[in-house]
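input
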Amino acid sequence: MDIRRKQVAAALAAVGLYLEEEQAALAARTETAAPRITVAGPGFWAQAGRMEAMAARRMMQMRAFARIR
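output
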């Protein structure tokens, strides 16, 4: 029974050390990582232009379907 307790204690100690090493490696990696450059999305005017183009296309389609009927 004493051997079983020693095995469990050794396994828990090994897991604890492994987790500590992983956390230390992660902390070192985030400290040395280069800052990320964020890319801005499309601006307001680009988005408004696309919406206007879609509205014009919708109007042309509605006009074309009205003539078919």
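quick obs: Residues 2-32 form the longest helix (31 residues).
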